Structures are given as C-alpha cells and as structure tokens.
Amino acid sequence: MHQGANIIDGNRVPAASGRTFTRHNPADPADVVGVFPDSDAADVAAAVDALEKAAPEWAATAPERRAQILESAAAQLESRAETLIGELVREEGKTRAEAAMEVGRTPANLRFYAGEALRATGATYPGAGPATVYTVREPVGIVGAITPWNFPLNIPSRKLGPALAAGNAVLFKPSEVTPLLGQRLAEALWDAGLPPGALALVQGGAAAGAAVATDPRVGAVTFTGSTAVGRWIHGQVGPERRAQLEMGGKNPVVVAADADLDKAAALIVKGAFGLSGQACTGTSRVIAVGEVHDDLLARVVARTEALTVGPGEQPGVDLGPLASAAQRDKFLDYVRIGLDEGAVLHTGGTAVGDAGYFVRPAVFSGTHPGMRIATEEVFGPLVAFARAGSLGEAIEIANATDYGLAAAIVTENLGTAARFVRESRSGLVKVNQPTTGMAMNAPFGGYKASSTQTFKEQAGPNMMDFYLLEKTVYLTP
C-alpha cells in the first residue's frame, strides 16, 4: 500500500485538515492501492505560496536547461516502464496493452515539448524612424493543471510539459481516482532535475480542484474533464485569467451506404469499447445510412459478444473494469434509461461477477436525438445505433448534440468523405478510422460544449500561446 502525500517546495506534507482518502483497485476493491491527502483550499494556498517564491527563478532558467530536464524526465519514465504499467493496470483498471501504450507515449510527449522550450520566439516589426519594435514572450506565472483519471500519465504530460517548457511554475492536481500515477509523473520530473519549487503536487477531489480554479494567483487553468465542471471553472477564471478546457463528447460514426461493413464494425467496436468506453473521444453513437443498418448492427453485436471482460493483468482481456463503483453505477443507470426510453438492447448492459467493477458492453438500436442515451455522455461501454435515410440526414443526426469533439465516417467514396469533413461540427474528424487515437503532433480540441475555442491543446502552431504572454516593445536607442 502506497502512503501518498502532497509535495510542496520539495517537502512531503499531509493535508492541513488531516483528512485522507483511499484508492482501491477497481478489479479487486479489497486491494488498497494507497492512502492520499484529501486536500482543500488551505493546501492549495500553501502550494501557491511556495510556487510564487520559486516562479521567478524557474522563469529565468535558460530554455536549454528546461528542455534538458524534460528530456531527462522522459528517460526517467522509460526506465520505470514496467513498474508504471503494473501500477496503471492496478490503479485505473486498464488492460496491460492499454497501459503499455500510455506509458510509451508519455515520454514522447515530454520530448516533443522539450523542443518547444527552444522555440518560444518573438517577432520584429517595421518601426517609425530609429525605433525598433519587437515582441517577447514570457511565462504566465503559475499554471494550474487539473487532470482526469482515464489517461493519468498521458494527459498531464500534455499540460505539465508545455507549461514547464515555457518557464511557468505548475500547480498539479491529479484526479483522486489515479493519485498514484499523478505522483509518479511528478517524481520523474523532480528526479530529472526540476527545481522542487517549480512544481507542486496537491492531491484530492472537488474541493482541491475548486481551490486551484479560484485562486487569483493562478494565472492560467488547464482542465480536462466533464463539461459541467469545465463550465464552472470557466466562470471562476473570468476574463482576467486564462482557461483551457477539454471537456465531454458524444462522438458519432456515420456508416455510409457504400461502406465495407466488416471494416466499419471493427472500427466501431475499437472506438466504443477500448479503455472500457472511458475515453472522451470514444464512439458512443452509430448512424447507419440506408439499408446497411441491420447487417452492420448484427456484425457489431457479434464482435461485442466476442470481447473478453476481466482483470487487466490477465492475458487475452479486451475490457478491464470501469474505474470506480460510481462509473459502474452510471453505466447501469444509462442502460436503464435507454430501455425506459424505448431503445432496443441487443447485448450486454449488465454487471459481471461479485467483485470488481466489471460490465458487459452494451449495444442499443432504435435511438434518435431526443433520447438521453443519444445526447448525453455516458463515459462507459455503451453505443447507440440510429438509422438515417440519406447522408444528409446522417450528418444532421451526427451534429444534433451539444458536443462536438470527435466524429468519423466509414465510406469508400472520396466525395462522401469530403462532404462529411466539411459539414461535421466536430473539432476532430476522421475518415475510415475510429474516433479514438490522435496524433501527438496535431492540435487536439473540439467544437461547442467539448472545448474552449481559444486555445488548442497538445500541438500545432499556436499550442504554446496558452502558456505564454506576449509583450510588445518599442525601443529607441
């Protein structure tokens, strides 16, 4: 059992209140992963106090040194890969294959952002007379990073990496569902030579997250999680500070009348049930055009029923447990909601076994945009089929949601694909690919209620803008 702590200015400290919370293995709730501080506003304030003192020194650190530390942190993570894979399976419930993929990608993220430390350049402009006009880019100061549990290494690395590369001090609040993995990422950075005061780790739940968002000394808040929480954070941050929000999705796959149905079924099952359906880009809706609906549904049901559910460390397992009892109960609630709404359940939708938060993935048909299972984010292994009489109707159904994160189409026709790309109201659009799985060197973000529209995450020409202020200088000798 791991004994966790907040880590502030390099010191391990308990919550000021003395309260703790316990994290259990979702595959075996009797297995205690660790006990961690249940922090609140007092702990966040102490962390910000320390970060304020250390921030100027880290901001003045040479870009080459910042890059070197991120490169070294990547190497630290790689050297601990086997341990991290085991801890990720145990704490979150991923399969070993899913854990290995995340543990492998996280160091690559840090190396990518190491390069950004050397590219935070300004520009020069024509000036009147002898004046030189130019811009310089400076760190925001303190960045608050509030991160989710479904990718507890990968997503935080996409926030801590660029924030530190830009010279910001960082207040890191990982999810209370995966506190150990959050600590492991922070440890790799400190072991790589990051000054202790440049990063503070505060564990806890909603009270700690709220305190990060409301402390006026935190100049920028980057958050990945639910839309409801993201909207609240946006209101707290206000116009004088910055917010970068990656939120929910209700991601459709449109299957055109000319689609290869075996290919379509494979992409749907992969996108819907990978990570046990607990991905913001996971497939949650299928819109079949014309006569392909019944044949496609039968193929998806057959592939779903062939999936193996079990503990993530066991070979041959396709779906591990849901991350918590709350996630399991939410999934089962939505199965009941779907049935009450009149949708047809073809397979799954039940809990599995007496121990652990295991469920059989659910496939519904007969849904329409007026139903909750067709419009609300389940964040579990549930996919809802709908019929469309034409491609235009399918696109209308795909767009009939408050969300706009990821969308995909399966088609053999380039013109059909081009129309879908043009008319889809989603920030991530894929053709003949699952809705999940994005390139690390491409921008990530959605439309509508899925993201803030001002700052893209992960990569792209403007990716570092969130973490840097721009100052315009007029210089006359």
Which short descriptors sum up this protein?
477 residues, alpha/beta, Aldehyde Dehydrogenase, Chain A, domain 1, Aldehyde Dehydrogenase, Chain A, domain 2, 2 domains, 7-stranded mixed β-sheet, 5-stranded parallel β-sheet, 24 strands, 23% strand, globular
> DSSP helix count?
13
- What CATH architecture label of the largest domain applies? 3-Layer(aba) Sandwich
Please give the share of residues in helix.
25-40%
C-alpha termini separation? 64 Å
Sheet with the most strands: spatial strand order: 15-18-19-14-13-21-22
Please give the CATH class of the largest domain: Alpha Beta
Question: What is the number of E strands?
Answer: 24
Mean pLDDT, to the nearest integer, reads 96
- Please compute the radius of gyration using only Cα atoms: 23 Å
Tally of domains: 2
Q: Which regions have little confidence, pLDDT < 50, spanning 5+ residues?
A: none
What CATH calls the topology of the largest domain is Aldehyde Dehydrogenase, Chain A, domain 1
- Percent of residues in beta strands? 15-25%
Give the CATH H-level superfamily of the largest domain.
Aldehyde Dehydrogenase, Chain A, domain 1
So what's the overall shape? Answer: globular
Structural class assignment: alpha/beta
